[in-house]
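We emphasize that the prediction below concerns an isolated chain of 174 residues; any contacts that depend on oligomerization or on bound cofactors are therefore not represented. The input was used exactly as deposited, without trimming of termini.
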Amino acid sequence: MASLIGPSLVGIIYLVVSVVLLVLLFWLVHRKKGTLAAVLCTLLALVVLALGYGFGSWYAPVDKDNGSDVYTEAEMDAAVDAIMAESFWDEMHARVLDIHYIGDEQSANYLASVQGRFPDSGYTECAVFNTDFRSAFLAKNAAPLAPREVYTDYQWVLARTDGGNWEVVTSGYA
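Result of the prediction step, given as a token string:
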């Protein structure tokens, strides 16, 4: 899982602000001007560092592994876009860390199940992805997710008819 693929812009900003606050703290302590200012500056630096930890990875890029021998890269990107467009992410206040395709053979095995559940749909193709995601830093309204937790291998089953648009037919933990 690649929860932190590289430094995000927000993470870099938090780091810079934290360093500036710490330099200000040392300058205030060195000048021996008011311990209240030094204490307040220390508390502010700690708050910024804590927020940077909680929110800094929130904007990191999503790691994608969607290679397939059956589908083109554009088709797989369209499937990933269908997953990312789901309202689940907004409703659960969640942020995708990693999307990975489970493979052509395993996805083909799901097709019969999908056709059985939706007999009138005419689905002829199936693709299954697993996602890893993080719940929000302050996930008060995102029950049943706990704040700042990483959830792994949340499954998404997509289907389509003869090269049409991918549709999410089911998702969740098996």
